[in-house]
Design a protein that fits this description.
The chain has 238 residues and is an alpha/beta fold. 45% of the residues lie in helices and 12% in strands. The protein is built from eleven helices and six strands. The strands form two sheets. A four-stranded parallel β-sheet has the order 4-5-3-6, with helices on both faces. GO terms for molecular function: endonuclease activity.
Length: 238
């Protein structure tokens, strides 16, 4: 006998139904066939042949994520179902998945104190996904001013590590540091994560940038973040 669905499961199913247009779009069938032809084995490394084309980062109706070949992978149905359960936070009869890492997205304008917040709160063994730290690891010689040619590689490295959280691991907690001024940015980067928004006042961020000798363009980036954030707040449903 099937177990009754919880209120949260009903809500998740209703929300997912609004994204079904992606699979009815004329672009989806050829893209799906391309992925299955290019990836003969399940990308979760279980050894089974794939049957489902999965979005590595859930698209949530976002057109760019939905039809981005780089965001697609071939999975067998059991691995896909397990990944979906992790993303929605439910497995089996609606119980929260045991052992899943707590993911926290820490966001705010440049110089708002994101990295300092994570240093103060992360524990030994926690995963920290930080754009600047990845940039340095990939060859940038400056902690905050990275060559434009490196940026696509930094982005792919960040996305690959974030996507790895969807597979089996032994982490207790993960932290993602990003600017993410829009709510949609935050949902795309870390769906279902706890969000810490450090809305440090614009003038304080600017003061810190000047004090710390941040690179040219930082103050403009602070101003841009606040413009975008305020506009997003004005258009967000109350």
């Amino acid at each position: 006998m099937a177990k009754p669905r919880t209120t949260a499961q009903h809500h998740a199913r209703r929300t997912a139904a609004t994204w079904r247009w992606v699979y009815d779009d004329r672009r989806w069938p050829p893209l799906r066939d391309q992925v299955l032809s290019e990836e003969p084995l399940c990308r979760a490394h279980c050894g089974r042949p794939p049957a489902v084309v999965d979005h590595i980062r859930p698209h949530r109706g976002d057109e760019q994520l939905a039809f981005d070949r780089g965001n697609l992978q071939a999975l067998c149905k059991p691995c896909h179902d397990a990944k979906t359960a992790r993303e929605t936070g439910f497995a089996g009869g609606g119980r929260k998945q045991a052992g899943a890492a707590r993911i926290t997205l820490v966001c705010g304008p440049p110089c708002s104190g994101k990295s300092s917040y994570v240093r103060e709160h992360a524990e030994r063994g926690d995963l920290v996904i930080d754009w600047d730290a990845l940039a340095v690891a990939l060859g940038s010689s400056h902690g905050h001013d990275h060559p434009p040619a490196l940026r696509p590689f930094i982005a792919e490295a960040r996305d690959a590590v974030t996507a790895r959280l969807d597979r089996a691991h032994n982490l207790t907690a993960a932290w993602i540091i990003a600017t993410a001024p829009r709510q949609s940015d935050r949902e795309r980067l870390a769906p279902g994560a706890d969000v810490v928004l450090l809305a440090t006042p614009e003038d304080e961020c600017t003061r810190r940038a000047r004090r710390d000798g941040r690179p040219h363009g930082t103050i403009e980036a602070i101003e841009s973040w606040w413009r975008t954030y305020r506009a997003d707040q004005d258009t967000s449903p109350r």
